[in-house]
Amino acid sequence: METITATSTSSSTTKKPIIHCYVKRDSNSLFKLYSQTDNALPVFHSEHYSLSEAKEEAITLGAVNCLLV
Fold first, then answer.
1. In angstroms, rounded to a whole number, what is the distance separating the alpha carbons of residues 41 and 55?
2. Are 64 and 19 in contact (CB under 8 A)?
3. Most buried among 2, 39, 42, 49, using CB within 10 Å?
4. Strands (E) located in 1-69
5. CB 16 within 8 A of CB 63
6. Which pTM was predicted?
7. pLDDT per position in the chain (69 positions), as tens?
8. Which are the contacts of 7, defined by CB distance < 8 A and separation ≥ 6?
9. Nearest-5° angle of CA 49, CA 18, CA 21?
10. Neighbours of 30 (CB within 10 A)
């Protein structure tokens, strides 16, 4: 009987960070996108003229979720 052993790959040892995005509308009617990686504090990422633009940017960042706050 042949024994097969599994070898660990580099992708299994390095976790991809979980990214959350928050969109906030400011007084100038611009939508500000904030991103948060794992448990870090949210940081400003970019400004957009519409909510859909901000959501598209969140998707390109690979965000798990995008919340309007």
1. 20
2. yes
3. 42
4. 19-25, 31-37, 43-48, 65-68
5. no
6. 0.74
7. 444 444 444 455 677 888 999 999 999 999 999 999 988 999 999 999 999 999 999 999 999 999 998
8. none
9. 20
10. 13
